Amino acid sequence: MLGLLRTAVAAAAQRPVAAVQLPRSIVQAKANSLPFIPTDWIFRFFPYISRDRVRFLLRFNQISFLMGLGYFYLWAHAPYKCDHYEGFYESPFYRY
User: Fold this and answer.
1) How far apart are the first and last CA of the chain?
2) Are the C-beta atoms of 42 and 50 separated by less than 8 Å?
3) CA–CA distance, 46 with 90 (Å, rounded to integer)
């Protein structure tokens, strides 16, 4: 195993590896993309929804807010699950 590792290191040291250049749109995806659905797909496949860009932005913000609220209250927030220690009954046997 060490011989194989030594051979791989020696082969890598002989010629430098050129950096892989990704497309600019992929590199900047975090800066200008929207979650779940690429915005260019909305403008391409649903022209009726995105005919007016200002209304589309308003609707997108409203839908994103409601999805975030729904995630918080319907999925992440489990009521009466006793995840906290305040108000939780502790047996007297554990308090010595």
Assistant:
1) 57
2) yes
3) 57
